[in-house]
Amino acid sequence: MANHHFGKFADVWKHLTLVEVLALERPSRYAETHSGSGANAMLVDPERRFGVLRFLEIADTTASLGQSRYRALLKQFGDVRSFYPGSALLAMAQLGVSTSYLLCDLDPVSVEDLRAWSARLGITQCEIAQADGMTAVLDWLDDSAGSATPRHVVVHVDPFDPHSRLADGLSALDLAGRLVDEGYGLVYWYGYDSPNEASWAYHSLRETTQGPLWCGDVMLVDETGAGRPGDLGRASTSGTGSGIVLANVSENTRTTCLALGEALASAYSGSTVPDGTRGHVRFSVHERP
Fold it and tell me: What pLDDT sits at residue 146?
């Protein structure tokens, strides 16, 4: 299992957005640079109680969240207290057999799990690579040149370290910038540990690319609206946050993700965060047409 942070609040926002993008954009080709396992055995702890388990409670009383594709897929897979589906599994379940896939991860256990899930779902056009996701995605795009226009491709970039490179390859941010400028659909996840880093990936890509961008950023804050430096890799505390940068997607997709972000922040108002303090979610949006 490569991902030890599944089902946390950052995963909720990432997957809520990702599934909606895929449902609305309907790509014929879909790739992930850092897939992790298809699913993970669920943990019931303060992080998941604030994350996916809290989401399930509020979704049933919040119309837009309850009608989201993410909620529908969680219901389709059954008891989330048993296991939590990762992004690749959610994508395969949403897009089905008509889409071709490239799913990458360096962890051999995750790779085997992805293969098992793709076979279980009957996904035949699915390449699963135990390889550097950035290099593999570029090769995959080059191999498919002419068979699908960039507008019919979505790439999900979800790095552990956005700046690291293997050998002389691209970093996750480098790859994201190239995808933006070449017109490919992009879903880029980022996280941060300090309030002054909010929306950092959007600002970075805005400086280095020319294409259209949309960013939805969610940050945990305390009851006064303040945050403090934390450790997103360890816990969800006031001052930690994450976001999604979208590129080359439709106005309808951007509008839908905006509504979902607003609904999520409203529904989490007055929640108890995993460290036991009271707080809420600050949702902010940036956009370059």
Answer: 60
